[in-house]
Amino acid sequence: MDTPQITAPSYAQPGGPPGPNDGPRGVTPTSGVIHVNTRHVSGFTVIGNHLAQHHELSLVAIGLAAHIQSLPAGAKVGIKVLTDRFPESEARIAAALRELEAKGYLHRSRVRLPEGRVVTRTVSYNQPRTDASTMPAPRPRPAVPVPVPPQAAPPEPVQPPAPVPVPAPTPAAPSSPLPHPHAPTEGLHRTAATLLADLRRRAPELTLSEGDIRALTPGVATWLERDAHPDTIRHALTADLPVPLKHPAKLLRHRITTRLPAPLPGTADLTAPRRKVVVIPLQNCETCERAFRATEPGHCRDCRTDLPEAA
Question: Which CATH code, of 1.25.40.10, 1.10.1660.10, 3.40.50.2300, 1.10.10.10, is assigned to 49-128?
Answer without folding.
Answer: 1.10.10.10
